[in-house]
Amino acid sequence: MPITKGYQQLVAEAMAQVKTYSVEDVKARLDDPHVQVVDIRDVRELEREGTVPGCINAPRGMLEFWVDPASPYYKPVFGDESKEYILFCGAGWRSALATQALQNMGMTNVAHIDGGFTEWVKQGAPVETMAQHKARRHDKAA
């Protein structure tokens, strides 16, 4: 069966429909209590490359389930309507598609980072290791 709409078209359509921030935009808002940065990459990517300080990890495959209060997998961190959730992945493709999916679910407080984590690192934005990320989460829970 031939593919009638490839990934490039899907990503282009998503990019036309979602709010996109530059690395500089997001970096300037890292300490804003009304912003929650969300890393949707696989945990192996986080272990290998690190992540954005202060972010939460919500693997792409579970995102819709974690966001929906009716799901048995719901995570209350996604229930704060006063926050803007800014997603990122490796290159900005998965996060564009994920942002579009969340918009399709009714979320209006969602955006993504142009160029993803690759662009984040390229521009010298702050990065934390997986060990630092886990320690920060542990400290927050204590």
Features:
142 residues, Oxidized Rhodanese, domain 1, 5 strands
Describe this structure in words.
The structure is a single chain. β4, α5 and β5 (110-113) form a beta-alpha-beta unit. The protein has helices at residues 7-17, 23-27, 43-49, 63-67, 93-104, 116-122, 130-141; strands at residues 20-21, 35-39, 56-57, 84-88, 110-113. The protein has one domain: 3-Layer(aba) Sandwich (Oxidized Rhodanese, domain 1), CATH 3.40.250. The protein contains 7 helices and 5 strands. With 142 residues, it is α/β, with parallel strands linked by helices. Strands 1-5-4-2-3 form a 5-stranded parallel sheet. α1 (7-17) crosses α5 (93-104). The model has no long low-confidence stretch (mean pLDDT 94).
Strand order of the largest sheet: 1-5-4-2-3
Global Rg:
15 Å
User: Biggest sheet: strands, sense, closure?
Assistant: 5 strands, parallel
What string, H for helix and E for strand, traces the elements in order? HEHEHEHEHEHH
Q: For the record, what is the CATH homologous superfamily label?
A: Rhodanese-like domain
On the 0 to 100 scale, the average pLDDT is: 94
Low-confidence stretches: none
Shape summary: globular
Q: Percent helix among the residues?
A: 40-55%
